Amino acid sequence: MANRLKFDADTHTYLLGGKPLISVTQLLRKHGLAPDYGGVDEAVLERKAARGTLIHREIEAWIKTGEDGFTTELAGFQALAKQYAFTCMRSETRVHNDIIAGTADLMCGAKMPDGRKIRLLADIKTTARIHTEYARWQLSVYEYLSGRTFDELAVIHLGEQARLITVPRVKREEVEKLIECERNGRIYTPPLAELSTALLEAALQAERAIRSAETVRKIAEERARLVRAQLLQEMERHGVTGFENDSMKITYVAPTTRTSIDTAKLRADNPDLCAEYTKATPVAASVRITLR
Description:
Shape: elongated
Radius of gyration: 28 Å
Strand content: 15-25%
Helix content: 40-55%
Order of helices and strands: EEEHHHEEEHEEHHEEHH
């Protein structure tokens, strides 16, 4: 069946036995899982898309034939390929089922900084900003359609500095739920959207209260800093070392020298010793909320 899949580059259309398939990009956009570029000028988007296509073609040619190109992005990719010891690189691999198709930018072996040798599935991005949630959905759907299991999913970001950024995969059951929604003509609802409105509103109000309190605290701390500086100056000028009344006690603390360990230098000069005295502390699961 794989050899029946055809791709029309001009219309970016996938056909399976003459039947049009929805692309992974279209799928994620349709179900609200892709970034919205509606506010960006179309001419700008077209220029960036053309540039991105050129870079992808240069990388594909280099992987498959060794042919060099001229873009700085290709040079950045080559540097990452060396840094992570990419092996058995497969570029622009088409994956599909009976309703969805896509093209995975890179499948390869890699060696991570911690020494692990892994199977890597990566998508190459040339945008200024990485939309992590979109990338993890895109790569997770590619992995599902490929029928393979990879050790890591990652974005290869070819911006001002070439970087390999690993992203957490979406749970398989959620990918399957998305595909079933598409198959049955329903819009997928992410798990977070199923949280109660009351709970989300309570979280919003709590975070706003914290932000408001932090603003008040910062103002109070700055005022206290200025007053303490004045107190220090006056106590030194008059030779006063202490003051106490019914409301508070003030103690003058003479200047001294604090001794500490330069952990960065210790780690660099004696990594084995540093490792011997390093301990791992379990950190409980938590929720991070960012107000917009």
